[in-house]
Specification:
The chain is of the alpha+beta class. The protein has three domains: 31 residues; 294 residues, Rossmann fold, CATH 3.40.50.1110; 135 residues, Jelly Rolls. It is 35% helix and 25% strand. The longest helix is centred in the first third of the chain and has 38 residues.
Amino acid sequence: MTIGLVPRKKTLESRKKITITHLNLQGNKQTFSALNKITHSKWLAWGAVIFSIFFLLIVAWFWLGSEHSQVGLASRWDTLQNAVSAARDTALGTDAASNTDTTKAETGRQAVVKPKLNESLFKPESPKSNYFLQNNPTSQNNAPLDKFFEALQSVADTDHIHLAFYGDSQIEGDRVTSNMRPLLGESMNCQNALGFVPIIERSTNMSVNKNLGGKWQKYSFFDKKHPSKRYGASGMAFKFYAPSATLKLNFRNMKHRGYLLSYGKTNKPLIINVYNAENWKRIVSDTLEADSLSHTHFHVVYWPEAVSKVKFEFLSKSSVDVFGLYLYESRKGLQIDNYGLLGHSGNGFLFANASFMASQHKALNTRLVLLQFGANAIPYINSPKEYQYMRKEFSKMIQKVKEICPEASILLVSPGEMARRINGRYIAYGNARHFRDMLKDLAITHEVAFFDTYALMGSQPNLGAWLKKKWVYSDGHLTEKGHYAFAKAISEALIAEWAAFKAR
Protein backbone atom coordinates (compact mmCIF):
# COMPACT_ATOMS: atom_id res chain seq x y z
CA MET A 1 0.00 0.00 0.00
CA THR A 2 1.41 3.43 -0.87
CA ILE A 3 0.83 6.34 1.50
CA GLY A 4 1.00 9.80 -0.10
CA LEU A 5 3.35 12.21 1.65
CA VAL A 6 3.34 16.03 1.35
CA PRO A 7 6.67 17.18 -0.02
CA ARG A 8 8.73 19.08 2.56
CA LYS A 9 9.32 21.95 0.13
CA LYS A 10 5.57 22.68 -0.33
CA THR A 11 4.92 22.45 3.37
CA LEU A 12 7.54 25.09 4.11
CA GLU A 13 6.11 27.38 1.40
CA SER A 14 2.59 27.08 2.89
CA ARG A 15 3.87 27.95 6.33
CA LYS A 16 5.61 31.01 4.93
CA LYS A 17 2.35 32.21 3.31
CA ILE A 18 0.41 31.77 6.55
CA THR A 19 3.10 33.64 8.52
CA ILE A 20 3.17 36.50 6.02
CA THR A 21 -0.66 36.77 6.02
CA HIS A 22 -0.74 36.84 9.81
CA LEU A 23 1.90 39.55 9.92
CA ASN A 24 -0.05 41.60 7.31
CA LEU A 25 -3.27 41.37 9.35
CA GLN A 26 -1.45 42.41 12.50
CA GLY A 27 0.16 45.26 10.68
CA ASN A 28 -3.17 46.54 9.27
CA LYS A 29 -5.23 46.12 12.44
CA GLN A 30 -5.99 49.83 12.74
CA THR A 31 -7.14 49.98 9.09
CA PHE A 32 -9.63 47.11 9.54
CA SER A 33 -10.98 48.66 12.75
CA ALA A 34 -11.74 51.91 10.94
CA LEU A 35 -13.51 50.06 8.11
CA ASN A 36 -15.65 48.12 10.61
CA LYS A 37 -16.76 51.33 12.29
CA ILE A 38 -17.79 52.85 8.96
CA THR A 39 -19.74 49.73 7.93
CA HIS A 40 -21.47 49.56 11.33
CA SER A 41 -22.55 53.19 11.08
CA LYS A 42 -24.04 52.59 7.62
CA TRP A 43 -26.09 49.64 8.90
CA LEU A 44 -27.33 51.72 11.84
CA ALA A 45 -28.39 54.48 9.46
CA TRP A 46 -30.24 52.10 7.15
CA GLY A 47 -31.86 50.40 10.15
CA ALA A 48 -33.12 53.76 11.42
CA VAL A 49 -34.62 54.58 8.00
CA ILE A 50 -36.36 51.19 7.70
CA PHE A 51 -37.68 51.41 11.28
CA SER A 52 -39.08 54.91 10.64
CA ILE A 53 -40.86 53.78 7.49
CA PHE A 54 -42.28 50.71 9.25
CA PHE A 55 -43.44 52.84 12.19
CA LEU A 56 -45.19 55.33 9.88
CA LEU A 57 -46.93 52.47 8.06
CA ILE A 58 -48.25 51.08 11.36
CA VAL A 59 -49.52 54.50 12.44
CA ALA A 60 -51.24 55.01 9.08
CA TRP A 61 -52.84 51.53 9.24
CA PHE A 62 -54.35 52.08 12.69
CA TRP A 63 -55.44 55.60 11.81
CA LEU A 64 -57.33 54.42 8.73
CA GLY A 65 -58.74 51.42 10.57
CA SER A 66 -60.16 53.52 13.39
CA GLU A 67 -61.41 56.34 11.21
CA HIS A 68 -65.15 55.74 10.75
CA SER A 69 -65.60 58.38 8.08
CA GLN A 70 -63.62 56.58 5.41
CA VAL A 71 -66.18 57.32 2.78
CA GLY A 72 -65.44 61.01 3.29
CA LEU A 73 -68.90 61.91 4.51
CA ALA A 74 -68.30 63.24 8.01
CA SER A 75 -67.74 66.90 7.27
CA ARG A 76 -70.47 67.01 4.63
CA TRP A 77 -72.93 65.18 6.89
CA ASP A 78 -72.32 67.51 9.82
CA THR A 79 -73.23 70.46 7.61
CA LEU A 80 -76.63 68.85 7.04
CA GLN A 81 -77.05 67.93 10.70
CA ASN A 82 -77.58 71.56 11.72
CA ALA A 83 -80.74 71.66 9.59
CA VAL A 84 -82.46 68.88 11.51
CA SER A 85 -80.92 69.01 14.99
CA ALA A 86 -83.17 71.77 16.39
CA ALA A 87 -86.45 70.01 15.59
CA ARG A 88 -85.08 66.65 16.69
CA ASP A 89 -83.73 67.88 20.03
CA THR A 90 -86.90 69.79 20.84
CA ALA A 91 -89.20 66.82 20.27
CA LEU A 92 -86.99 63.94 21.35
CA GLY A 93 -84.72 65.46 23.96
CA THR A 94 -81.08 64.54 24.47
CA ASP A 95 -79.57 62.19 21.91
CA ALA A 96 -79.23 58.66 23.25
CA ALA A 97 -75.74 58.57 21.78
CA SER A 98 -74.54 61.00 24.45
CA ASN A 99 -74.62 58.24 27.08
CA THR A 100 -71.77 56.34 25.47
CA ASP A 101 -68.00 56.32 25.63
CA THR A 102 -67.74 57.96 22.20
CA THR A 103 -66.26 61.47 22.01
CA LYS A 104 -67.20 63.71 19.09
CA ALA A 105 -64.48 65.90 17.63
CA GLU A 106 -65.37 69.36 16.36
CA THR A 107 -64.43 68.27 12.86
CA GLY A 108 -67.30 65.78 12.82
CA ARG A 109 -65.02 62.76 13.25
CA GLN A 110 -65.76 60.56 16.29
CA ALA A 111 -62.77 59.46 18.34
CA VAL A 112 -62.97 55.72 18.85
CA VAL A 113 -62.58 54.62 22.43
CA LYS A 114 -63.28 51.36 24.19
CA PRO A 115 -66.95 50.56 23.38
CA LYS A 116 -69.29 49.94 26.27
CA LEU A 117 -72.80 48.51 26.24
CA ASN A 118 -74.84 49.28 29.35
CA GLU A 119 -76.91 46.13 29.61
CA SER A 120 -79.07 47.65 32.35
CA LEU A 121 -80.72 49.65 29.56
CA PHE A 122 -82.53 46.46 28.55
CA LYS A 123 -84.52 46.70 31.81
CA PRO A 124 -86.33 50.05 32.15
CA GLU A 125 -86.37 51.28 35.76
CA SER A 126 -90.09 52.03 35.63
CA PRO A 127 -92.98 51.54 33.18
CA LYS A 128 -92.64 55.15 32.04
CA SER A 129 -88.89 55.06 31.39
CA ASN A 130 -87.97 53.95 27.90
CA TYR A 131 -84.50 54.61 26.60
CA PHE A 132 -84.54 53.48 22.98
CA LEU A 133 -88.17 54.03 21.92
CA GLN A 134 -89.60 57.52 21.32
CA ASN A 135 -93.40 57.62 21.50
CA ASN A 136 -93.86 61.38 21.76
CA PRO A 137 -97.23 63.18 21.79
CA THR A 138 -98.62 64.11 18.38
CA SER A 139 -100.54 67.19 17.23
CA GLN A 140 -103.74 65.31 18.19
CA ASN A 141 -102.64 65.12 21.85
CA ASN A 142 -102.10 61.38 21.70
CA ALA A 143 -99.08 59.15 21.20
CA PRO A 144 -98.20 57.32 17.96
CA LEU A 145 -98.65 53.88 19.56
CA ASP A 146 -102.09 54.66 21.05
CA LYS A 147 -104.01 53.09 18.15
CA PHE A 148 -102.28 49.78 18.78
CA PHE A 149 -102.77 49.91 22.56
CA GLU A 150 -106.43 50.88 22.22
CA ALA A 151 -106.98 47.85 19.99
CA LEU A 152 -105.23 45.61 22.53
CA GLN A 153 -107.43 46.99 25.29
CA SER A 154 -110.73 46.57 23.46
CA VAL A 155 -110.17 43.41 21.42
CA ALA A 156 -112.95 40.82 21.63
CA ASP A 157 -112.32 37.28 22.82
CA THR A 158 -112.74 35.93 19.30
CA ASP A 159 -110.60 38.50 17.46
CA HIS A 160 -107.02 38.58 16.32
CA ILE A 161 -104.79 41.63 16.21
CA HIS A 162 -101.87 41.48 13.79
CA LEU A 163 -98.46 43.08 14.24
CA ALA A 164 -96.68 43.42 10.89
CA PHE A 165 -92.86 43.57 11.01
CA TYR A 166 -91.42 44.66 7.64
CA GLY A 167 -87.67 44.59 7.07
CA ASP A 168 -84.70 43.24 5.17
CA SER A 169 -82.28 40.37 5.79
CA GLN A 170 -81.83 41.37 9.44
CA ILE A 171 -85.33 40.04 10.21
CA GLU A 172 -85.96 37.65 7.29
CA GLY A 173 -86.57 34.02 8.21
CA ASP A 174 -88.46 34.86 11.44
CA ARG A 175 -85.09 35.60 13.08
CA VAL A 176 -86.29 38.45 15.31
CA THR A 177 -90.04 37.83 15.45
CA SER A 178 -89.58 34.23 16.65
CA ASN A 179 -88.02 35.73 19.78
CA MET A 180 -90.58 38.51 20.16
CA ARG A 181 -93.59 36.18 20.44
CA PRO A 182 -92.67 34.57 23.78
CA LEU A 183 -91.30 37.88 25.09
CA LEU A 184 -94.64 39.61 24.44
CA GLY A 185 -96.73 36.53 25.22
CA GLU A 186 -97.95 37.19 28.74
CA SER A 187 -98.03 40.99 28.66
CA MET A 188 -99.92 41.30 25.36
CA ASN A 189 -101.53 37.87 25.00
CA CYS A 190 -99.27 37.15 22.03
CA GLN A 191 -99.72 33.82 20.25
CA ASN A 192 -96.81 31.44 19.82
CA ALA A 193 -97.82 30.89 16.19
CA LEU A 194 -96.06 31.49 12.90
CA GLY A 195 -98.74 33.70 11.41
CA PHE A 196 -97.70 34.56 7.86
CA VAL A 197 -96.17 31.62 5.96
CA PRO A 198 -93.55 32.68 3.39
CA ILE A 199 -94.20 29.77 1.02
CA ILE A 200 -91.01 30.51 -0.91
CA GLU A 201 -88.08 32.32 0.76
CA ARG A 202 -84.33 32.49 0.22
CA SER A 203 -83.14 32.13 3.79
CA THR A 204 -83.63 29.38 6.34
CA ASN A 205 -86.66 29.96 8.54
CA MET A 206 -86.05 29.76 12.28
CA SER A 207 -89.57 28.46 13.02
CA VAL A 208 -90.50 26.04 10.24
CA ASN A 209 -89.12 23.61 7.67
CA LYS A 210 -91.00 23.64 4.36
CA ASN A 211 -91.36 21.11 1.56
CA LEU A 212 -93.14 22.14 -1.63
CA GLY A 213 -94.75 19.91 -4.23
CA GLY A 214 -95.99 20.86 -7.68
CA LYS A 215 -95.12 24.16 -9.32
CA TRP A 216 -95.06 27.41 -7.32
CA GLN A 217 -94.13 30.97 -8.34
CA LYS A 218 -93.24 33.88 -6.05
CA TYR A 219 -93.81 37.59 -6.72
CA SER A 220 -92.95 40.61 -4.57
CA PHE A 221 -93.23 44.36 -4.84
CA PHE A 222 -89.43 44.48 -4.42
CA ASP A 223 -87.99 42.32 -7.19
CA LYS A 224 -90.16 40.01 -9.36
CA LYS A 225 -93.32 42.09 -9.61
CA HIS A 226 -96.80 40.67 -10.16
CA PRO A 227 -98.36 41.81 -13.47
CA SER A 228 -101.46 43.07 -11.64
CA LYS A 229 -99.44 44.87 -8.90
CA ARG A 230 -101.66 43.07 -6.39
CA TYR A 231 -99.85 41.72 -3.34
CA GLY A 232 -100.85 40.43 0.02
CA ALA A 233 -100.16 42.24 3.28
CA SER A 234 -96.62 40.88 3.10
CA GLY A 235 -95.84 42.65 -0.16
CA MET A 236 -95.64 39.19 -1.73
CA ALA A 237 -97.90 36.91 -3.75
CA PHE A 238 -97.55 33.23 -4.67
CA LYS A 239 -99.08 31.28 -7.50
CA PHE A 240 -99.60 27.54 -7.70
CA TYR A 241 -100.20 26.01 -11.10
CA ALA A 242 -102.89 23.50 -12.03
CA PRO A 243 -103.66 20.76 -11.45
CA SER A 244 -102.19 20.49 -7.92
CA ALA A 245 -99.61 21.72 -5.45
CA THR A 246 -98.66 20.80 -1.89
CA LEU A 247 -97.04 22.54 1.07
CA LYS A 248 -95.72 20.54 4.03
CA LEU A 249 -94.80 22.45 7.21
CA ASN A 250 -92.79 21.07 10.13
CA PHE A 251 -92.81 23.60 12.99
CA ARG A 252 -90.18 24.11 15.67
CA ASN A 253 -91.51 24.60 19.22
CA MET A 254 -95.02 25.62 18.14
CA LYS A 255 -98.37 24.05 17.28
CA HIS A 256 -101.28 25.33 15.20
CA ARG A 257 -104.97 24.66 14.99
CA GLY A 258 -106.27 26.99 12.32
CA TYR A 259 -105.44 29.01 9.22
CA LEU A 260 -106.52 31.95 7.11
CA LEU A 261 -106.04 31.81 3.35
CA SER A 262 -106.19 34.91 1.15
CA TYR A 263 -106.43 33.98 -2.54
CA GLY A 264 -107.38 35.52 -5.87
CA LYS A 265 -109.67 34.72 -8.77
CA THR A 266 -110.70 31.11 -9.28
CA ASN A 267 -111.94 30.14 -12.73
CA LYS A 268 -112.51 26.59 -11.47
CA PRO A 269 -113.40 25.22 -8.01
CA LEU A 270 -110.55 25.00 -5.52
CA ILE A 271 -110.23 21.99 -3.20
CA ILE A 272 -108.09 22.33 -0.05
CA ASN A 273 -107.15 19.27 1.98
CA VAL A 274 -105.26 19.63 5.26
CA TYR A 275 -103.46 16.66 6.84
CA ASN A 276 -101.82 16.03 10.18
CA ALA A 277 -98.37 15.18 8.83
CA GLU A 278 -97.52 13.12 11.91
CA ASN A 279 -100.16 10.42 11.31
CA TRP A 280 -101.36 11.51 7.82
CA LYS A 281 -104.92 11.83 9.03
CA ARG A 282 -106.95 14.31 6.99
CA ILE A 283 -108.29 16.94 9.38
CA VAL A 284 -109.90 19.40 6.93
CA SER A 285 -111.33 19.15 3.41
CA ASP A 286 -112.99 22.16 1.77
CA THR A 287 -114.25 22.85 -1.73
CA LEU A 288 -114.34 26.55 -2.63
CA GLU A 289 -116.59 27.56 -5.50
CA ALA A 290 -115.22 29.25 -8.61
CA ASP A 291 -115.34 33.05 -8.60
CA SER A 292 -113.70 34.83 -11.51
CA LEU A 293 -115.04 38.28 -10.60
CA SER A 294 -113.61 39.02 -7.15
CA HIS A 295 -109.91 39.79 -6.92
CA THR A 296 -109.53 38.42 -3.41
CA HIS A 297 -111.17 35.92 -1.05
CA PHE A 298 -110.57 35.05 2.59
CA HIS A 299 -111.08 31.54 3.92
CA VAL A 300 -110.72 30.76 7.65
CA VAL A 301 -110.73 27.24 9.15
CA TYR A 302 -110.06 25.83 12.64
CA TRP A 303 -109.70 22.22 13.73
CA PRO A 304 -110.08 20.58 17.17
CA GLU A 305 -106.49 19.63 18.04
CA ALA A 306 -103.27 21.58 17.55
CA VAL A 307 -100.63 19.95 15.33
CA SER A 308 -96.86 20.45 14.98
CA LYS A 309 -96.70 19.10 11.42
CA VAL A 310 -99.22 19.90 8.74
CA LYS A 311 -99.59 19.37 5.00
CA PHE A 312 -101.75 21.46 2.65
CA GLU A 313 -102.95 20.05 -0.65
CA PHE A 314 -104.38 22.44 -3.28
CA LEU A 315 -106.35 21.00 -6.21
CA SER A 316 -107.77 23.04 -9.09
CA LYS A 317 -108.06 22.90 -12.88
CA SER A 318 -106.91 26.53 -13.04
CA SER A 319 -103.92 28.26 -11.47
CA VAL A 320 -104.59 30.37 -8.37
CA ASP A 321 -102.85 33.37 -6.76
CA VAL A 322 -102.23 33.00 -3.02
CA PHE A 323 -101.85 36.39 -1.33
CA GLY A 324 -101.29 35.06 2.15
CA LEU A 325 -101.43 31.90 4.26
CA TYR A 326 -101.59 32.53 8.02
CA LEU A 327 -101.46 29.92 10.79
CA TYR A 328 -102.99 30.41 14.24
CA GLU A 329 -102.61 28.88 17.66
CA SER A 330 -106.07 29.95 18.82
CA ARG A 331 -109.00 32.16 17.84
CA LYS A 332 -107.81 35.25 19.70
CA GLY A 333 -104.76 37.23 20.72
CA LEU A 334 -101.90 39.19 19.18
CA GLN A 335 -100.31 37.60 16.11
CA ILE A 336 -96.85 38.70 14.92
CA ASP A 337 -96.16 38.36 11.19
CA ASN A 338 -92.67 38.46 9.72
CA TYR A 339 -92.52 40.24 6.37
CA GLY A 340 -88.77 40.16 5.71
CA LEU A 341 -87.40 40.55 2.18
CA LEU A 342 -83.70 40.02 1.47
CA GLY A 343 -82.10 43.14 0.01
CA HIS A 344 -85.21 45.31 0.38
CA SER A 345 -84.86 49.02 1.20
CA GLY A 346 -88.57 49.82 1.67
CA ASN A 347 -89.27 51.38 -1.71
CA GLY A 348 -91.40 48.38 -2.74
CA PHE A 349 -94.42 49.97 -1.05
CA LEU A 350 -94.37 52.68 -3.71
CA PHE A 351 -95.06 50.10 -6.44
CA ALA A 352 -97.96 48.32 -4.70
CA ASN A 353 -101.67 48.68 -5.34
CA ALA A 354 -102.44 50.57 -2.12
CA SER A 355 -106.20 49.91 -2.01
CA PHE A 356 -105.75 46.17 -2.60
CA MET A 357 -103.02 45.88 0.00
CA ALA A 358 -105.18 47.88 2.41
CA SER A 359 -107.99 45.32 2.01
CA GLN A 360 -105.56 42.60 3.08
CA HIS A 361 -104.53 44.44 6.23
CA LYS A 362 -108.14 45.28 7.06
CA ALA A 363 -109.11 41.60 6.89
CA LEU A 364 -106.17 40.72 9.14
CA ASN A 365 -106.91 43.56 11.59
CA THR A 366 -103.34 44.86 11.48
CA ARG A 367 -102.87 47.43 14.27
CA LEU A 368 -99.10 47.89 14.51
CA VAL A 369 -96.58 48.14 11.67
CA LEU A 370 -92.83 48.01 12.30
CA LEU A 371 -90.59 49.28 9.51
CA GLN A 372 -86.88 48.52 9.64
CA PHE A 373 -85.11 49.49 6.43
CA GLY A 374 -81.92 51.29 5.53
CA ALA A 375 -79.12 48.76 5.97
CA ASN A 376 -79.16 48.13 2.22
CA ALA A 377 -79.18 51.85 1.46
CA ILE A 378 -76.30 52.91 3.72
CA PRO A 379 -73.54 51.68 1.36
CA TYR A 380 -74.83 53.85 -1.49
CA ILE A 381 -75.17 57.18 0.29
CA ASN A 382 -72.00 59.07 -0.64
CA SER A 383 -73.14 62.69 -0.80
CA PRO A 384 -75.63 65.12 0.76
CA LYS A 385 -77.63 64.97 -2.48
CA GLU A 386 -78.06 61.21 -2.11
CA TYR A 387 -78.97 61.74 1.54
CA GLN A 388 -81.75 64.15 0.55
CA TYR A 389 -83.00 61.72 -2.09
CA MET A 390 -83.15 58.89 0.45
CA ARG A 391 -84.99 61.14 2.88
CA LYS A 392 -87.67 61.84 0.25
CA GLU A 393 -88.02 58.14 -0.55
CA PHE A 394 -88.47 57.18 3.11
CA SER A 395 -90.94 60.01 3.58
CA LYS A 396 -93.02 58.68 0.67
CA MET A 397 -92.78 55.16 2.10
CA ILE A 398 -94.17 56.26 5.48
CA GLN A 399 -97.01 58.12 3.76
CA LYS A 400 -97.83 55.03 1.67
CA VAL A 401 -97.89 52.76 4.74
CA LYS A 402 -100.24 55.20 6.46
CA GLU A 403 -102.51 55.00 3.42
CA ILE A 404 -102.39 51.19 3.44
CA CYS A 405 -102.88 50.83 7.21
CA PRO A 406 -104.89 53.87 8.37
CA GLU A 407 -106.01 52.16 11.61
CA ALA A 408 -102.52 51.01 12.61
CA SER A 409 -99.75 52.59 14.65
CA ILE A 410 -96.34 52.81 12.95
CA LEU A 411 -92.98 52.21 14.60
CA LEU A 412 -89.98 53.28 12.53
CA VAL A 413 -86.89 51.22 13.44
CA SER A 414 -83.44 52.48 12.49
CA PRO A 415 -80.71 50.16 11.18
CA GLY A 416 -77.51 49.55 13.09
CA GLU A 417 -74.00 50.12 11.77
CA MET A 418 -72.94 48.12 8.69
CA ALA A 419 -69.43 47.30 7.43
CA ARG A 420 -67.63 46.22 4.27
CA ARG A 421 -64.35 44.39 3.64
CA ILE A 422 -61.33 46.52 2.70
CA ASN A 423 -57.86 44.98 2.33
CA GLY A 424 -58.85 41.97 4.39
CA ARG A 425 -60.46 44.00 7.21
CA TYR A 426 -64.10 44.90 7.90
CA ILE A 427 -64.48 48.68 8.11
CA ALA A 428 -67.72 50.40 9.12
CA TYR A 429 -69.36 52.65 6.54
CA GLY A 430 -69.61 55.24 9.27
CA ASN A 431 -72.83 56.96 8.19
CA ALA A 432 -75.33 54.89 10.19
CA ARG A 433 -75.45 57.68 12.79
CA HIS A 434 -76.53 60.20 10.15
CA PHE A 435 -79.06 57.78 8.70
CA ARG A 436 -80.46 57.24 12.20
CA ASP A 437 -80.78 61.01 12.71
CA MET A 438 -82.58 61.34 9.40
CA LEU A 439 -85.12 58.63 10.34
CA LYS A 440 -85.59 60.13 13.79
CA ASP A 441 -86.41 63.47 12.23
CA LEU A 442 -88.85 61.82 9.79
CA ALA A 443 -90.57 60.13 12.74
CA ILE A 444 -91.18 63.58 14.24
CA THR A 445 -92.43 64.98 10.93
CA HIS A 446 -94.85 62.11 10.27
CA GLU A 447 -95.83 61.64 13.95
CA VAL A 448 -94.85 57.99 14.20
CA ALA A 449 -92.93 56.17 16.92
CA PHE A 450 -89.19 55.60 16.61
CA PHE A 451 -86.82 52.89 17.88
CA ASP A 452 -83.09 53.67 17.97
CA THR A 453 -81.18 50.51 17.01
CA TYR A 454 -77.97 52.50 16.51
CA ALA A 455 -78.04 53.64 20.15
CA LEU A 456 -78.94 50.12 21.27
CA MET A 457 -75.76 48.83 19.62
CA GLY A 458 -73.64 51.35 21.51
CA SER A 459 -73.65 54.43 19.25
CA GLN A 460 -70.12 53.58 18.09
CA PRO A 461 -68.63 54.39 14.66
CA ASN A 462 -67.89 50.67 14.35
CA LEU A 463 -69.57 47.46 15.55
CA GLY A 464 -68.23 47.96 19.06
CA ALA A 465 -69.52 45.98 22.00
CA TRP A 466 -71.91 43.84 19.97
CA LEU A 467 -69.02 42.47 17.93
CA LYS A 468 -67.15 41.73 21.15
CA LYS A 469 -70.13 39.86 22.56
CA LYS A 470 -70.56 38.01 19.25
CA TRP A 471 -74.04 39.49 18.85
CA VAL A 472 -73.15 40.70 15.37
CA TYR A 473 -71.02 39.45 12.48
CA SER A 474 -68.13 41.48 11.08
CA ASP A 475 -70.32 42.91 8.29
CA GLY A 476 -73.04 44.15 10.66
CA HIS A 477 -75.60 41.33 10.33
CA LEU A 478 -76.92 40.04 13.63
CA THR A 479 -75.98 36.63 15.00
CA GLU A 480 -78.48 34.37 16.75
CA LYS A 481 -77.63 36.00 20.09
CA GLY A 482 -77.92 39.41 18.46
CA HIS A 483 -81.39 38.60 17.12
CA TYR A 484 -82.49 37.76 20.65
CA ALA A 485 -80.91 40.90 22.16
CA PHE A 486 -82.58 43.06 19.50
CA ALA A 487 -85.97 41.34 19.96
CA LYS A 488 -85.66 41.68 23.73
CA ALA A 489 -84.97 45.40 23.54
CA ILE A 490 -87.93 46.09 21.20
CA SER A 491 -90.27 43.85 23.21
CA GLU A 492 -89.37 45.45 26.53
CA ALA A 493 -89.76 48.89 24.98
CA LEU A 494 -93.28 48.03 23.78
CA ILE A 495 -94.18 46.50 27.14
CA ALA A 496 -92.98 49.67 28.92
CA GLU A 497 -95.10 51.88 26.64
CA TRP A 498 -98.08 49.54 27.06
CA ALA A 499 -97.78 49.83 30.85
CA ALA A 500 -97.51 53.63 30.59
CA PHE A 501 -100.64 53.72 28.39
CA LYS A 502 -102.67 51.69 30.89
CA ALA A 503 -101.45 53.92 33.73
CA ARG A 504 -102.78 57.14 32.14
